[in-house]
Amino acid sequence: MRFGRSRSGEEPREDSGLYAKLILLLALVAYLIAFALENRREVSVHFVFASSRVSLIWLILLSIAIGAVGGAVISQLNRRRRRRQ
Fold first, then answer.
1. How buried is residue 79: exposed, middle or buried, by Cβ count under 10 Å (0-12/13-18/19+)?
2. Is 83 exposed, middle or buried (0-12, 13-18, 19+ CB in 10 A)?
3. pTM score > 0.90 for this model?
4. Distance (Å, whole) CA 84 – CA 37
């Protein structure tokens, strides 16, 4: 890494980190698209009193959302309990 001005008198640029982040972001988006396309078939979901057919990707995303909300609620309850002690 060089400091100061380059031989041409221009400021040095740090674009390599930007390009690496852009490539990583594009790879992640491509993976998510492939994941959604691979999991688009319909599956039966059996609830206690009913059942339904949904696309597998929606079931996966719903499970992730329920887990995230549940984790946030448990985290808040633990934080509140620690403050009272």
1. exposed
2. exposed
3. no
4. 48
Q: Cβ distance 40 to 55 under 8 Å?
A: yes
Residue 31 near residue 45 (C-beta atoms within 8 A):
no
- What digits encode the pLDDT tens for the residues 23-48? 999 999 999 999 999 999 999 999 88
In this structure, the strands spanning 51-55 and 42-46 are antiparallel
Q: In this structure, are residues 44 and 59 in contact, taking their beta carbons and an 8 Å threshold?
A: no
Whether 52 contacts 44, CB under 8 Å: yes
Phi and psi, residue 84, nearest 5°: -75, -20
Q: Which amino acid is at 5?
A: R
